[in-house]
Write a structure and sequence with these properties.
heterodimer; A: mainly beta; six-stranded mixed β-sheet; B: mainly beta; seven-stranded mixed β-sheet
């Protein structure tokens, strides 16, 4: 089955810094989503991005499907950006998740 | 438009008991998927229902079963609970099998 790897596993930054989270996947996929898991466990949709680049405020994402990776950029980090970020790709009618990147933004 | 809602939010059960978790899909969505998330891990696919039929299953034993109703809401049933079943159970709905998935807030199950 499809393998999804996220890096780095942990990232600690100061408020105001920029960050780049990476997601590699092992096979071609139809869909790719980025999520932020809040402290209560809910997965919040950030981007639905099977290919190309999208931006939403301080967040942007790029997926290069031919090279099997996606990047999530967070600019001017705020403490509320802290949490776990998951990349998930669709394979055989299911989402396959990476292990996540735990982002900590210190004031 | 209401989002995906799950109930209950928290649950404590004893080993060997049975549990039913519920999920109401987002309005207009006919596909519901269930995931199990152990502490510190990414969510793992349990199964998917599309128009009331099971449409794919992950590597979970038969004591994990499900149901989708005509209004596309869904239930996850787990029989003979084991301590390792303690996890966050997430439900996701989507417009169809291949579109963006939206998750509920989850049910945190503790088996003691």
């Amino acid at each position: 089955g499809i393998q999804v790897e996220q890096s780095p596993p942990d990232l600690i930054l100061q408020e105001g810094a920029n960050s780049t989270l990476r997601c590699n996947f092992s096979d071609s996929v139809n869909n790719l989503q980025w999520f932020h898991q809040n402290p209560w466990g809910q997965l919040i949709n950030l981007f639905y991005i099977p290919s190309g680049t999208k931006q939403n405020g301080r967040l942007s994402a790029t997926t290069v499907a031919t090279e099997r990776y996606s990047l999530l950029y967070i600019s001017s980090s705020q403490t509320t950006d802290s949490g776990v970020y998951f990349c998930a790709v669709e394979g055989a009618q299911k989402l396959v998740f990476g292990q996540g990147t735990r982002l900590t933004i210190n004031p | 438009e209401t989002g995906v809602t799950q109930s209950p939010t928290h649950l404590i059960k004893t080993r060997g008991q049975q549990v039913t978790l519920r999920c109401s899909s987002q309005s207009g969505h006919n596909t519901v998927s269930w995931y199990q998330q152990a502490l510190g891990q990414g969510p793992q696919f349990i199964f998917q229902y599309y128009r009331e039929e099971e449409n794919g299953r992950g590597n979970f034993p038969p004591r994990f079963s499900g149901l989708q109703f005509p209004n596309y809401s869904s239930e996850l049933n787990v029989n003979a609970l084991e301590l390792d079943d303690s996890a966050l159970y997430l439900c996701a709905s989507s417009l169809n099998q291949y579109t963006e998935a939206f998750f509920g807030q989850g049910t945190r199950l503790t088996v003691v």
